[in-house]
Amino acid sequence: MDLFKNFAEFKMDVLKEVGNIGAGNAATALSRLLDKPIDMAVPKVQMLPFEAIAERVGGAEKVVLAVFFRVEGDTPGNLFFILSPEAAKKLLHRLAGIQVEDEDQFSEMEWSALSEIGNILAGSYISSLADFTSLAMTPTVPALALDMAGAILGYGLLQFGEMGDSALLIDTTFIEGQHEVEGQFFLIPDPESFAKIFAALGVPLQDD
Amino acid sequence: MIDEHLIVKVGMADLNVAHTEGLIRTTGLGSCVGVTLFDPKLKVAGLAHVMLPSSEIAREGALNIAKYADTAVPELVRRMNELGVVTSRLVAKMAGGSQMFAFSGSGDSMRIGPRNVESCKLALSELGIPLIAEDTGGNYGRTIELDCVTGILFIRSVQMGIKEL
């Protein structure tokens, strides 16, 4: 993990900008879908111990709805779009006019709509990054899960697991005007991807 | 209810032991495997939250031996031996190792759950520790707790509720 110990402040800023551009475009896409303004918090970029990553969404046992994408191409990584089950229901109602039938269960229709929403948002997140960096990046088809945050996010930490006990997380929260729909994007690039991201943006990997 | 302070918590890629009273717990197991060992005579319980199957793939400087199946199981036994536990009395139970996301692709990381389970079983059999119960596989997360008085393993999941092994 020595590679990451030496990340200077400005490199973290570069990664924040990566989060800003990706999530910014995704928020714009969501705002168009909902025809409502969407606010975005300043991205948080941090090297976090595995335990602390699930804390970002309320702890390892907190039940969340996550749409997961593996990012393929020049800079592989893992992308999660995370919502509380309540926010997901509200989003479905707003967007697709789907009436909430059961608070705790998602019907096949709802599942498929969420997967499509995730697809649109992840598509704009990743394609804006690809444009910005001129690197090839494509998200895989979305995979959904409604489960404990620890179990879901653990899956995105495997690549970092081979190198240490913490991972570099680019965390962006977006909020719909009245705080009714709040969601988070977690981008966890594979450890090997950082050198390529920095090179593409003209940032020297070695700190002088 | 058991007092919170009697609960020993084990994090991801971590291991610990508890004895005489209370519970040992780990939360949010997905593709990770929770391996528990129990000595019914001394009431000593151990739990490892294993993340990856083999330390051979490790590229880290200082190896975290609690993270890999092949190193975590022997280390857990060693910690329990220090408390006077005889290895031949130990019995094992395990849970986790699910595939959280179904993909058409079948890359190595896709099968990580089942591979973690296989590696844990191998590590146990190499030490001659019988695996008396398991709740592994599936596509959902689990939180587990081992009662170090009775040796009962409680498994909680979102869809399936609470299960006892």
Automatic annotation (TrEMBL), chain B:
GO BP annotations, alphabetical order: chemotaxis
Recorded catalytic activity of this chain's protein: L-glutaminyl-[protein] + H2O = L-glutamyl-[protein] + NH4(+)
DNA repair keyword on record: no
Gene Ontology terms, MF aspect: protein-glutamine glutaminase activity
E.C. code: 3.5.1.44
Gene3D superfamilies: 3.30.1330.200
Role: Probably deamidates glutamine residues to glutamate on methyl-accepting chemotaxis receptors (MCPs), playing an important role in chemotaxis.
Stated family: Belongs to the CheD family.
Protein's UniProt name: Probable chemoreceptor glutamine deamidase CheD
Species whose genome carries this gene: Paenibacillus apis
